[in-house]
Amino acid sequence: MNARSGPHDVERVAAVLSEIPLFRVLGEDGIRDTARAGLSRRYRPGEIIFHQGDPGESLFTLLDGLVKVVFTTEHGAEIVLNMLGRGDTFGEMALLDGSPRSASIVTARPAWVFALPRARLLELMREHPGLADEFLRLLGRMVRRLTGQAADLAYLDLGGRLAKLLLRLADKHGNHGEVVELPGLTQSDLAALVGATRPAVNRALQSLVSRKLIAVHGRTITLLDVAALRKRGGL
User: Which stretches does DSSP call E strand in the chain?
Assistant: First the structure.
């Protein structure tokens, strides 16, 4: 399963990379060379792409699918820090300072992942200064997201945080429109992402259901009133 991209995969990988601002600066030939230099692999749901504590040897790009960023405490508890979808990159921090991976990446649904070795990434940055600029922008967006999450914990109640999270997940991983199907997530996942307990999130979800803002069917959440959810999330 973990094999270097073949000729046909190279073209498919390059097609997705060309949609991502980080790689778009390389131009058509540079993107194709990048696709040849890395590895692409497909994963089943529940597989671990890398473990917390592993050495940071590659930059990863999610070509398709959905993954969870999971932090494990020293007592063994697992906390979901973020959800990533098509076009998102991960593993950046370990590449910068040479430290071990700060979290694990676990697939939430079938995923297709591209790994670019650190040495090749650094070569590309020297050959294409614009890539380094885009990498800095990528890190800037990461910091802004973390700052926003901290602000939400301070100023939004649980219902507001949950509404904002559902909108963000729908925008990133769902279908655009008034009714959006979200990928299957457990209530424990949602609780970790909004900084609450699972029972509290269950009550908040039922409140949104009773107001006809969402519908819950098993692990699938459908957004019924996007405008009201935006208002609830302070957007």
Answer: 3-4, 39-43, 48-50, 58-72, 78-85, 89-90, 104-117, 180-181, 214-217, 220-223
What is the average pLDDT across 126-136? 86
Angle at 47 between CA 12 and CA 169, to 5 degrees: 70
Q: What count of Cα atoms within 13 Å lies in the side-chain half-sphere of residue 224?
A: 12
For the chain, report the end-to-end CA distance as a whole number of angstroms: 43
Q: Is the pLDDT of residue 172 over 80?
A: no
- Angle at which helices 158-173 and 187-194 cross, to 10°: 110
Q: What is the pLDDT of residues 187-200, one digit of tens each?
A: 787 888 888 888 99
DSSP string across 50-93 = E-TT----EEEEEEEEEEEEEEE-TTS-EEEEEEEETT-EE-HH
Which DSSP state fits 152?
H
- Is there a contact between 116 and 14 (Cβ–Cβ < 8 Å)? no
For residue 33, the surrounding DSSP H or E stretch is helix 27-37
